Amino acid sequence: MNDPGERTKLFTLGRLAITVDGVTSTAIASQPVRAALLVYLAVEKETTRQAVTGLLWTDREAVRARHVLSQTLYQLRTDLGEAVIVSEREALRAGPGLWVDATAFTEAVESGDLADAIALYRGPFLPGQRLADTNAFETWVDRERARLARRNRRARREHLDALVEAGDMTGALRAARDWADLDPLEDEAQHRLITLLAEAGREADALRRYADHVRALAREDLTPLEDTTRLIERIRSGAVPGAAALRDAGTGPGSGPGSTTATV
C-alpha cells in the first residue's frame, strides 16, 4: 500500500473524513459543497471548470457559477495548501498533495495487492452523504459507489479463493466473516462464509448465519438467492460439497447466468 505520508488525506470509503498532516480537519467536511468539489477532483484526478460547474451549480447562470467555483477553489487552497489542487486555465487537477482512499484502493486491486485493497475498503463510497443538492452530482456518486463496490467484491473473492487454495482455512474463515460483516446484504459473502463454516464442521453456526442473513434481507424486502437456499438444504441433509467442487460445478454465487447479488 502506498504510504501517503504527511499531507492531505481524504477518506471516502465507509465515512467522509479529511486529515491534514495527520490532524483531522472538520472545516471542509462541514462545508458540503466544498467537500463535494474536493472529492470529485480527488477521484476524477482531472476535469474542467465547465464540467465542475455543470455538476455542482446547475441552478446558477454560467458567469455566476464560475465565480462561485473560483471562490471555492480559493477556500480549499487556503485550508489545505496550494499543492492540493492545480489549475491551468480551464483544466483542474488533483495536486500531488492530495491522497484519496478510493484511488489507492482501486490501484491496489489492479496491482493485485488484495490485502492492502481490503484494508482500505472500510465501507461504501460516501455512505449516507449528500454533499451537493444536484442530480448530476448524486448520479456521479451512485456510479462511483457501484464501481468501487464491484472492485471490493472482486478483491475479496480473489483473496478468499487464494486462502482456500493455500489451505489456510482459519484465514479463509476470518476473511469471509469480515466480508459478510461489512455487507450483510451481500449474498455471495454470506454464501462463502456459510460454506466454510459447514466445511469446518460448524453446521450450527452456518445455519445461524443463514437465519441472520434471511432476517437482514427481509428488512429490505429481499430474499436469499436460490444458490444459497440450495446450499442450506445440502447442509441440513449432511451433503456439504468442498468449496473448490462447488465452484467447479458452477453452482456457487456469481457463476450462473441467473445469479445476481442482493444489494441495495
Q: What does this protein structure show overall?
A:
With 264 residues, the chain is of the alpha+beta class. It is 56% helix and 9% strand. A hairpin with a 2-residue loop joins strand 5 and strand 6. Helix 1 packs across helix 3. It is elongated and about 70 Å long.
| Cα separation of the termini | 30 Å
What topology, given as strand order, has the largest sheet? 3-2-1-7
> How large is the count of helical segments?
11
Number of strands: 7
Query: Mind describing the biggest β-sheet?
Result: 4 strands, mixed
Give me the strand/helix succession: EEEHEHHEEEHHHHHHHH
What is the chains' assembly state?
Answer: single chain
Helix/sheet category: alpha+beta
Radius of gyration: 22 Å
> Any low-confidence stretches, pLDDT <50, length ≥5?
1-5, 242-264
Which shape, going by the Cα principal axes? elongated
Mean of residue pLDDT values:
86
| Overall helicity | 55-70%
Strand fraction equals 5-15%
